[in-house]
Design goal:
The chain is of the alpha+beta class. It is 35% helix and 22% strand. The protein has 3 domains: 113 residues, OB fold (Dihydrolipoamide Acetyltransferase, E2P) (Beta Barrel); 31 residues, no CATH class; 257 residues, Bira Bifunctional Protein, Domain 2 (BirA Bifunctional Protein, domain 2). The protein has an 8-stranded mixed beta sheet with strand order 7-11-12-17-16-15-14-13, with helices on both faces. Strand 2 and strand 3 form a beta hairpin. Helix 6 crosses helix 9. The model has no long low-confidence stretch (mean pLDDT 94).
Length: 518
């Protein structure tokens, strides 16, 4: 195109042989050279008829561009924000760092600029509004973008720096998961997601029409992982990254009807703790890898959603269920009282500011916490841990043991599925474990029963009809390895590592009982 600016349609009718430069690659070392960039128009500022400034954005990086000349300024500064532009510019070094941009040590002088896709003039939400922290919104009394508005316009919301960081971190979690297990000799499998019966005998399944009969969306790959090991696919184990479906009418901060499961299953020689050690090492590999590889992404998230770095050691803290309940009873009341006092202060502040809805919501939390704290000193040794118990225990472990990452082992057998191996010495306990980050469970696992007679017996005791999953039972009749494993909620790992308050922030297009779009 001969003209130095204008609208340009890319329809694959020619090749320019241009060399393109990424915004994050712009450094003072390139000063004096000309570069082509394709990026979003993040902002424009018309200084005068002949001078303007535009800011280009590409993922997590931004750069300031100087536009000179009446026609060029009129065109460039008249484009809607979020438009896609191709820019040819000379790299220069500004007299002072441009602190408003990530590439603060350089400035571009435009030679040519072409709009290849013009954004709508009126956007359903402004990116600068969506990218602010709650503290900034409250302090400056600026517009707040509500969660439903974000999710209804998710494509725009995903462009915020925090979301760019979150979903690049999510990608790295999956890469680190796969990297670690492949390095241990595991193989990746892909189990069916449409199945003939409710997996694991559960009721919370989605039913669909499958030709002339019904099928169900899989709640987990649990049974297929085990069957894969019985098919000798484990060396020493198998893993899968895939969707999981739960027909639960749950509106909590940590549940969705569809999420991504990071599942592994492994044979062992003597003791199921061989598998637990691999799982613990897997998490530590993920945590260390994120800190090492995602520094820029972590800071982008922290700028909008402040969080403290995850505390974890080179080995995981491991508690038995009995020890965990003892810790909760011993330290929970005092630490819980501190948390209650802080919540009461937040409620008082909201009332003084006239934030009636926030004050009302906090009053409900205060009331619920008071009621919960009454139960903590008398929590039974084998009583189930509620979500509130788990959160308080997380605060206790963080304070007393100085870690946010820990394992609870040897669960009460009554709380685990029918296929969980009982403790050989104490049958009321099970060879089962959960893994926690910041007081929330991210993995549930156990040694599985590989003896078909024992499996049938325990299923009968728990009232589980094995007829619909007879293929699973039969798989242990032909010679079965002792094995164990676990399922990890990928979005929950991201949420808790980053200290986010809602799992929907770590899901690209979340699904819950009220949301099936976009």
């Amino acid at each position: 195109m001969e003209h130095p600016f204008g609208q340009l349609t890319i329809n694959s009718n020619t090749k320019t042989e241009r060399t393109w430069t990424d915004v994050d690659a712009l450094t003072p070392a390139l000063s004096g050279s000309s570069v082509w960039l394709r990026a979003r128009l993040h902002n424009t500022r018309k200084q005068s008829a002949k001078l303007g400034f535009i800011e280009l954005r590409q993922r997590l990086s931004t750069v300031q561009v100087v536009v000179q000349g009446k026609d060029l300024v009129s065109f460039a500064c008249g484009l809607p924000k979020e438009s896609i532009v191709d820019v040819l510019a000379e790299v220069t070094t500004p007299p002072a760092p441009i602190t408003s941009c990530t590439q603060s040590g350089v400035e571009l002088q435009v030679t040519r600029i072409y709009c290849i896709s013009k954004a709508a003039t009126r956007l359903p939400l402004q990116l600068e509004d969506a990218g602010r922290s709650d503290a900034e919104v409250a302090r400056l009394k600026l517009p707040r973008v509500e969660p439903d508005t974000r999710l209804d316009n998710r494509v725009i919301d995903l462009r915020t720096s925090a979301n760019q960081g979150i979903f690049r971190i999510q990608s790295e979690v999956c890469a680190l998961f796969r990297e670690f297990l492949l390095g241990k000799g595991f193989i990746e499998i892909h189990s069916p997601k449409m199945i003939a019966t409710a997996s694991e005998g559960g009721a919370d399944v989605f039913k669909l029409t499958y030709f002339q009969r019904h099928a169900y969306l899989a709640q987990s790959p649990q049974l297929y992982k085990q069957m894969a090991l019985m098919g000798d696919l484990g060396r020493p184990g198998v893993f899968e990254i895939g969707p999981v479906f739960r027909s639960e009418k749950s509106f909590t901060h940590r549940h969705m009807t569809e999420f991504t499961g990071l599942d592994m299953e492994m044979t062992f020689k003597d003791d199921y703790h061989e598998v637990l050690e691999v799982l613990e090492g897997l998490f530590i590999h993920i945590f260390a890898g994120l800190n090492e590889r995602c520094a820029k992404e972590l800071e982008a998230v922290r700028a909008q959603y402040p969080f403290e770095d995850l505390k974890f050691g080179r080995t995981a803290l491991r508690l038995t269920y009995y020890e965990a309940v003892q810790l909760l009873r011993e330290h929970g009341p005092a630490i819980g009282a501190e948390r209650l006092a802080a919540l009461e202060q937040q409620q008082k502040a909201a009332e003084e500011l006239g934030s009636s809805q926030e004050a009302k919501d906090l009053a409900k939390l205060v009331s619920d916490m008071r009621e919960h704290l009454k139960t903590v000193p008398v929590h039974g040794d084998e009583e189930d841990l509620s979500t509130r118990d788990e959160k308080l225990l997380g605060a206790v472990v963080s304070r007393v043991k100085d870690t946010d990452f820990y394992v609870i082992d040897k669960f009460p057998a009554a709380l685990r599925p029918f296929y969980t191996m009982p403790d050989p010495d104490q049958p009321n306990w099970a060879n089962a474990y959960d893994i926690f980050i910041r007081g929330e469970e991210v993995t549930s696992g156990a040694q599985r029963i590989h003896d078909p007679e024992m499996l049938v017996k325990l299923a009968a005791q728990k009232g589980v009809d094995l007829t619909p999953i007879q293929d699973y039972v039969n798989s242990f009749n032909y010679g079965a390895f002792p094995h164990a494993g676990g399922g990890i909620g990928m979005e929950r790992v991201v949420m808790l590592f980053l200290g986010l308050d809602n799992i929907r922030k770590s899901s690209m297009f979340p699904r819950d009982p009220t949301r099936l779009t976009p």
